[in-house]
Write a structure and sequence with these properties.
This protein is mainly alpha-helical. It has helices at 3-17, 21-38, 45-52, 56-63, 66-76, 90-115, 118-121, 123-151, 164-179, 185-199. Helix 2 crosses helix 6 (90-115) and helix 6 runs antiparallel to helix 8 (123-151). This is TetR/AcrR family transcriptional regulator.
């Protein structure tokens, strides 16, 4: 083989192994769909390949293992629900955050439930779940609180602040278990007004 032919072969191989961002998102979408529908244990590389119309070897070449592929897909679905919320008051911010959370409640809850026990035994999956669904919301809630403290609405050491994230994120996860329904905007707003704001000493809706 000549050097020119060798160079041509190298270029061809590189082109074949490269995945465009759009195609990568198709793979990730297939993974997330399979996760929500069947759960982590039942998800297979074969199933993802069939849904994404590709070969198993394509998936294995890029991500090596099922946990690596799932972790990448979870990270790709990162959506900061509370990002950009700034109404000028902590009460207004929390109500807006509740309405924003309701828009993704079904998808997020399904994903958490689908990963189930897998996140307890796989550190990479656990880290991906935190990175995609938990840490962005914690940061956004922290920013809301920091603004409220700066405005003098609430003391930085208010004891209820420690439980704010657990209240808002926890109610999203538990309502499907208790009532077989996702937490919609009306439910979450009522929760904020009846439980969260009084605990913070901010009273009822104004």
């Amino acid at each position: 083989m000549t050097s020119q032919e060798s160079a041509g072969t190298s270029v061809t191989t590189t082109r074949r192994s490269k995945i465009t961002p759009e195609r990568e998102q198709e793979f990730f979408g297939a993974v997330l769909d399979q996760l929500r529908e069947y759960g982590y244990e039942a998800l297979t590389m074969e199933g993802v390949a069939a849904k994404a119309c590709c070969s198993k070897s394509t998936l294995y070449r890029q991500w090596k293992t099922k946990p690596q592929l799932v972790a990448a897909a979870v990270r790709s679905g990162r959506c900061v629900k509370f990002s950009g919320v700034d109404t000028g008051s902590l009460a207004g911010d929390l109500r807006s955050a509740a309405r924003a959370a309701a828009q993704q409640a079904g998808n997020d809850t399904q994903l958490v439930q689908a990963l189930g026990h897998a996140v307890l035994s796989d550190e990479e999956l656990r880290a991906a779940l935190r990175e995609a669904l938990i840490e962005p919301e914690l940061a956004a809630l922290g920013a809301m609180v920091d603004r409220a403290v700066a405005r003098g609405e609430i003391a930085a050491d208010h004891p209820a602040l420690e439980f704010l994230a657990a209240q808002l994120l926890g109610v999203l996860r538990i309502r499907p278990v208790l009532e077989s329904r996702y937490a919609d905007a009306a439910y979450l707003t009522r929760f904020v007004d009846a439980v969260v704001l009084p605990a913070l000493g901010l009273g009822e809706a104004t």
